[in-house]
Each structure stands twice: as structure tokens, then as C-alpha cells.
């Protein structure tokens, strides 16, 4: 992008990228072969490029990523979490290239305009997290994973495209540490039941109690922070939430 | 447009070519070759060909067999393939004990160390498990359906393997990864606990095998890939211990050809329990690489390259007997384009440990009688053999390699998309 077009894609008043220049289709096929670079293993991911303010000597990063927002969309949740957990590194994963590009520009713009070095702890990668989660994170690296308003895939033959399934939960359980929390929410009742059923059935997850949900500051952000959540609230729609903890397990 | 149609037709055609497979009994009681839908068995104890008896209630085979193997105990044998049937045979009576119907084509099989479960992987990346309750009594079991054990997300699984002590099941796929999963006490409820992922290959993985020694019974894993390497792994942590490049040497083997930079695919690896050695077959190489593995220093090195002189014999599958340490190799394919044969196979044997000499046909255990059974009676022409090797190579890369499209081609494919139309 040359500098002239770059200026016009950013809002003059806020300095943030304008969404209408990053229009993308609502869905992307998770089954197709990926043609973007994929790290060979977690050791090959250079997170120092994502979090330059956390780089220490020898280009090593001082912390590991702990939160992952899977299918981060336009990045609303990441931006809210950034200030709530300023010392935690978090990454959004998104399959649609234009949307990823938008989130990247949005974070860079927020970093520029923020007065006290905020938003240095969030970043985004374009990837297919249904295929490549183990290429990014080591065993037990994550403490929180988010699946907010995922693609519902109504048809039965497309259920295998859903981002929450018994088999994919095996992989999420692998990258989550014991005690780590998985947050899911949707405005589609059928999908909400599906996600809850998958998590309840899985031997490595247990549901959070109501008290635990009430005391967790992240829970209310699931609806209020994301673009999709705001849209549902505007239309007065219902949401269906499932929040589960990864438990220690011996098979 | 016309061009792409031709291309598609070509791919369709190539997909049906299947390499010939070989498997030898752990104590060399029998040897099996699979070509297309044909399963050929020779009994080495009785020195006679075996006629398979299939009275299980399932359809009989039509399409190519893609995976065969003996159980570690040598009592059972399993075959599976494109006809979506998994057949479990008694390796003594050669009766089919059970036929399992898969929903999809089967790409890999494994039998648990204690002969109590069989696992098979389909082309959509799901690994299924079936309990072999009561199969050892030798009676035919009613046709069963598998239960889902684990899944690689929509990736073809190329190899399934149980760890030497049976604690883990390993699954390798075309997305460059090997998943190590704890094999649970109740496998029918699924295997959810992932021990590690072995990540490091940069192309599809084709084969896996364990190396072990008496001191290190847990063993290390070796894997071969389309990235022209054989790698050594510690499966507990998933860490890569060593990488052995085989491409350059394969180029040297071709002597005057200047192909040394091209990537080659490792087609098969086999190892002997308690022996830190492996034989490796490489695509388009007329022979075998012998690798030694230093289990203490965690290193892999090539100790010997055995070239097979004369006919263009490129092994499509290899198998070694733990007791005699003879390396059995087969070269062949089924459904060759432009050929009238349903398929052909050529069997060779190398005594690879002590002397590493290629046995003449008459010195092979079973002799010409065995070759007649395993190769069929059709004479094999030199030209067919080299054409088969090329067809197998093409089929494998079109099946497992990611298609590379140029930027223009990708844009061309998107031309009917609504968002593309709007911008024009």
C-alpha cells in the first residue's frame, strides 16, 4: 500500500483504519488448502515482530502468548482485553486476509495514538486455527481461548467445519494448561447447544459455576466488546454462552 | 478452460494408480504382496502359495489396497484400501475373521500390541478403532463399525503406528505433522489426551517406524517425508533429535544425472526391534539406503547405499523380518494408464545386515515358486517397470502435495465470486 492510499483508508479524526476499505466476505472455507505461510513449529514463530515492546536481549521475547482469540474478526475483544490485562500477551487468529489486515492496522494505529504505551500486548495472525493451532502454541501454553460468534454452519454436512467439535477440543485441550478457560458464545441457539454439548461430553473440560462466571471480568466482555456482540445487542437478540475450564486429566 | 479440464482428467487418472505393497511376517512365516485389489500370500514354512478364505459377511474387494500389515505378535494380518473395507485375517489359517466397513477410503491401519484393537485412518483424517473381542478363537465375527478415536482436521493420514510399549498411538499426515496421542484404557470412548506433536517436516509425511534397543525399549520414532529427509524424534516431548538429508545422496546414486538438488520423497522406512538400524526406500532411486541410529547420541547417519543393478527396480514398499533380518522389497503398481495389466509387481530380497547382498531369484526363501505367487506369471517388461515408478511418483505427489497455483490462476478461479464481480 503506498502512502497516498494509506492516508485515505485511515479516518482523519481518530487515526484508525476505516472498515469500509477492508470489506471481506463473511465466510471462508476452513477445509481448503492454505496458501499463506505457516510456521513449522511454535519455535519458528517470531513473536518479537508482533510484540516489539516485549523484546529483550538477543531478540528474545520476555513472555509467551497466553490468550488466543480464535476467529478474532475485527478485533473488538482483543482491544478490550489489552487494557484489562496489560501484562499478558494475546493474539487474534483470523482466516480472512482482509480482516486480518484491518486488525493489524487497527492495532498499529491504537499503539500510535495511545499516550501511555497501551495495546503493545495484542497482535493478530492470519491462519487457519482449525488446522494449525499446534504450529503456534506449545503444550499448555495458553490460559484463555475465545471462540466468539463463530460461523454456525447449519447444514449437517457442514458440521465438520464448525470450530468447536469433540476432535478439535482435543487440540484445544492440548494447548490450554490445566485451569485454563475456554469461552464460547453465539447468537444461534442450535450452535450454542452444540458447543455446550461438545464441551460437556469432553472429559478434559468442566463447566464454570455461576459464582465463577459472575466474578470473571472477561465474561461480560464476550457480548459487549465484539462487533458481532454489539450487533446482536442492537437487534435485541439472544446469546448463548458456554464457559468451561480445562481440567487435569489422566486417560 | 479446456486446459484445466484436461488437467483435472489427468489428476483423476493418476489418483487410481496405487503402489504395490509388501509385508513379511515378524518371524518370516509368510509374506504378503498387495497389488491393486489383489492380495497374494505365500507360506514360507510350508513353502506353498496360500488361498485366502473370505466367508465374513461383507462385500469382496474391488479397489486398490492401500495398507497392509501384520500385528506385532504375528497372529493377525490386516488389509484396507480404496474399497472402504478393512479386513482382518488370521495369519495362520488365512481366513478372513472380520470385515469392517468404513465410510471413507482407508489410508492407514495399525493393530494394537496386544492384538485387542485395530485402528484405521480414513482420507478425511479420522482414526477409527474396533475392538477385536474374541477374535483370537479364530471364528468369523459379524461385520462391525468403528468408533471414532481421534481426528486430524481434514488431512489425509499417511501412517498409523503404536509405540513399542503400546502406550501411544501415532498418526502422521500430509500437513507435515505427527500427532502422539495416549492410547486410552477405553479406546471406544475416544483418545483425547495428546502427548505431543512432532513438528519439523516441511512436506507431507509418508512413513513412520520406531527404532529401539534393549536398553531403550521405549524407542525413538523415525519419519520419512516428501521434504527428502528422515527425522528422529523423542515422542514424549515431540522434540526433533536429528535430521538426515537423503536428497543429495539420491542424486549421487543417479550418477550422471544432475538431479541432486531436486527434492525426493522417502517412500518407506522399516526397522528391526532392538536393532538401531533402518532401511529406507526413496522415490526414483534404484536401491535402498541403510541408516544407523545412535540412540545415546541421538543421531542418524547413512551407513550404506545399496544399488540394485540391472533392471530398473525402484522399491515401492519394503518390509523386514525381525528373525531373519532379510529385507523384502517390492516394486510395482496397479491401474497403470495405457496398460492392459491390472497391475504387476516384482519382488527382490536383500540380506542387509551382515553382508548386504542382493539375493538372486533362486536364492530367495521360497524360490521361484514364491515369485510366481507374489509376482504373478506375467513377464515384466523393463519399460513397464520404469513407467510404473513414474506413475506411482505422480500419483503420490498429486495426492499428498499441496497444489501450487500462480497468483493469476487464483484470481481466475475467483472470477465468479460476488465481491469480484462488483469491483469490475
Automatic annotation (TrEMBL), chain A:
Belongs to the class I-like SAM-binding methyltransferase superfamily. TrmB family. SUPFAM superfamilies: S-adenosyl-L-methionine-dependent methyltransferases. Catalyzes the formation of N(7)-methylguanine at position 46 (m7G46) in tRNA. It catalyses: guanosine(46) in tRNA + S-adenosyl-L-methionine = N(7)-methylguanosine(46) in tRNA + S-adenosyl-L-homocysteine. Keywords: Methyltransferase, Nucleus, RNA-binding, S-adenosyl-L-methionine, Transferase, tRNA processing, tRNA-binding. This is tRNA (guanine-N(7)-)-methyltransferase. It is found in: Nucleus. The active site is at residue 151. The keyword Cell inner membrane does not apply. Pathway: tRNA modification; N(7)-methylguanine-tRNA biosynthesis. InterPro entries: SAM-dependent_MTases_sf, Trm8_euk, tRNA_(Gua-N-7)_MeTrfase_Trmb. GO terms for molecular function: tRNA (guanine(46)-N7)-methyltransferase activity; tRNA binding. GO terms for cellular component: nucleus; tRNA methyltransferase complex. Coiled coil: none annotated.
TrEMBL record, chain B:
Transmembrane segments: none annotated. InterPro entries: Trm82 (IPR028884), WD40/YVTN_repeat-like_dom_sf (IPR015943), WD40_repeat_CS (IPR019775), WD40_repeat_dom_sf (IPR036322), WD40_rpt (IPR001680). This is tRNA (guanine-N(7)-)-methyltransferase non-catalytic subunit. SUPFAM superfamilies: WD40 repeat-like. Its main location: nucleus. WD repeats lie at residues 58-99, 198-243. It comes from Capsella rubella. GO terms for cellular component: cytosol; nucleus; tRNA methyltransferase complex. It is found in: Nucleus. Belongs to the WD repeat TRM82 family. Pathway: tRNA modification; N(7)-methylguanine-tRNA biosynthesis. The keyword Transmembrane helix does not apply. Keywords: Nucleus, Repeat, tRNA processing, WD repeat. PANTHER family: TRNA (GUANINE-N(7)-)-METHYLTRANSFERASE NON-CATALYTIC SUBUNIT WDR4 (PTHR16288:SF0), WD40 REPEAT PROTEIN 4 (PTHR16288). Forms a heterodimer with the catalytic subunit. The lineage of its organism: Eukaryota, Viridiplantae, Streptophyta, Embryophyta, Tracheophyta. Required for the formation of N(7)-methylguanine at position 46 (m7G46) in tRNA. In the complex, it is required to stabilize and induce conformational changes of the catalytic subunit. GO terms for biological process: tRNA (guanine-N7)-methylation.
